Automatic annotation (TrEMBL):
SMART domains given in the database record: PKS_ER
Keyword Cell division: no
Segments forming domain Enoyl reductase (ER): 11-322
EC number(s) per entry: 1.6.5.5
Molecular function per GO: quinone reductase (NADPH) activity
Protein name: Quinone oxidoreductase
PANTHER family listed in its UniProt record: QUINONE OXIDOREDUCTASE PIG3-RELATED (PTHR48106), QUINONE OXIDOREDUCTASE-RELATED (PTHR48106:SF13)
Amino acid sequence: MAKAVRFYETGGPEVLRWENAEVGEPGPGEVRIRHGAVGLNFADTYFRTGLYPAALPAGMGVEAAGVVEAVGTGVSHVREGDRVTYTGSPLGAYSTERVMPAEHLITLPGGIAFETAASMTMRGLTSAYLLRRIVALDAGDTVLLHAAAGGVGSIVTQWANLLGINVIGTVSSDAKAEIARANGCAHVIVYTRENVPARVREITDGVGVPVVFDSIGASTFATSLDSLARRGLLVCFGTASGPIPPIDAMSLAVKGSLFVTRPALADYIADPAERAELAGEVFGHVAAGRIRIDINQRYELADAVTAHRDLEAGASIGTSVFTL
């Protein structure tokens, strides 16, 4: 019988339940998919804690890869037997199989394993819109990237190197600094013992960087602003330490006519053509070996509670995935 992780109330990892699940036949515009691997993302914890709203009881997870087993009427871009991956609502990826809207599915290129796809679809598409849609960056530019040893950080750094962009990465430990350097960071700042804005100014001859990519949120917002060059852009694309504080518009003027944006992946993959273009680019790099996807932690789906505890404790390094 199919199994799934569900939660009936918001709270800590302990609210997650591993239970039997009924999976019916797909309706119009839907498919039934059997998962080969399931993604584990920090954003999953936002739904569990209630930071992101979800109608309870709810499934968990938005990313997985597997095989299409049945197709409902009106579905034409995938067929039974296709290898696919996806990221996006509705919740329910933490499952062995499910029925879901077909519109989210991306055909998986040959040579990319389910574990690789499930661990990189959200991170890869996020990296794609950060580097290819948010702002025009030129070879030789230098950017600041928080959480450089993380899943998105690893892909962004490697991709930036392909584009000739220099990355200053921040990490919390020497072990993570080694990972960031291996991914191609030109400079690494261990923020637990170094002053990030001061180091950025030192590296950039006092100018600052034109762009900061910040997935941390509350604890890094001020240092991110202070690391920007005049008319620089802060891209807040995550809130691992909590939501960013209210923005004082006048402070942006005082600090150098700065810009701040809070993008969401959903708005960059809503259009099927744009999603296909971004997916084609990132999966193309991975399939060709130009971008490496390292999976550092593997969990059984039944161990979702442990996985969430590790994630929130900062015990995970880089990319994690659920195996089936």
